[in-house]
């Protein structure tokens, strides 16, 4: 990577976002609405895409009913991204004492006021009550002394020394005045404070309980813990929160052809899914333990599944019907219920969902990397979201800028960038490619037959893509 300002860095800047996008943008092709129907073979079990998602969500609801998901207390720093398992009552009034909202003086009654010698700072013990005609220097956030009637901002007060001084010429003159801050005292006796603006009763005092009273419900059950929720919980006195725990995920990567480092060689390729899936599963609400590489070993796959105590097992590869595609035979040996066995979606149609225990499910992702992403968002997303008690994302639809060709029968998931309120399909969206999705903001859901230019289509968020999505990002 080049440091900013170097030649290469300048070249990258010169390239510009749009040109960078052109590296991955799809060439518009005529959409294929009306393409003559092809008789699908072995399609009988494949489920329509919306139904597959609903099935995964229902399965997770059944798991929650069967096993429950006991709330766990976690420290604030571990709670981000989890869901509140109970409503959040305030543990205290907020603010918990009458607080100065400004730097200035706490005053009692009408001015001018006699200024007390000591000031009041935030975090200090309570100052003694003020009497009518008295003022005391006060800082923002400090407790206002009892019987304070208002806070006068520094910039709205003028102080005057309480005694006359002798000048060099021997003439008497009043103590010099200061605007805002009190000048160093040169004479005995308290300063006098004058307001330069009208003073309204109660001004710039945040009364105790202004935001909430102890016991008030601040947030409801099921609220996603965001950075703002962490701040509110801390302000309201919490050190820990009761949350729905992250569903545990065991990730089993299948395939003898996979390398974990270096360049592809001798027919071997790099494992793209081992690095990609754990953080993605976490963004969807799950927590992946170690990634286990099983190779193409049916016995090892059987053991890994039957020994797993995870809420969700995710396998990659081996879902088709090749000589070393062991997922189906092993699930049959276990006696698992196949709830989804193929989905009418491209890429990713061999994806599957099985029930492997009373409250345990297995999502089989196809090995082709973009097909695996498709399976992740079709089956693992609704499942993990429901297990983690996260709210469903608001449905979002945007117009496509160019025609997006469709499959004759199946839904397509197409990586897109979002620009100017519309979706632009990206090139390099083949099942084995990650180049398009790596540059994408979202996935467009393209129904069978395709979408003509300007027509709205459903958009699936990518968890990291805040930029440009606006309304869709939750
Ligand atoms: N006769 C048929 N063959 C295939 C069909 C079909 O319907 N009939 N479907 C194709 C489709 S579509 C897909 S998708 C794949 C699904 O295959 P599997 O889930 O069995 O996956 P594999 O065969 O193990 O691998 C497919 C492909 O992906 C590469 N791969 C696997 N794992 C990884 C990984 N972790 N990182 C990177 N790449 C990976 C693997 O090397 C293969 O190239 O089946 C088609 N075949
Ligand atoms: O479903 Mo496969 O994903 O088309 O490659």
Automatic annotation (TrEMBL):
The protein's name: Molybdopterin molybdenumtransferase
What are the record keywords, sorted?
Magnesium, Metal-binding, Molybdenum, Molybdenum cofactor biosynthesis, Transferase
From what superkingdom does this record's organism come?
Bacteria
Q: Give the protein family.
A: Belongs to the MoeA family.
Record function comment: Catalyzes the insertion of molybdate into adenylated molybdopterin with the concomitant release of AMP.
Question: What pathway is this protein said to act in by its record?
Answer: Cofactor biosynthesis; molybdopterin biosynthesis
- Compositional bias (Basic and acidic residues) spans? 153-191
Q: Does the keyword Ion transport apply?
A: no
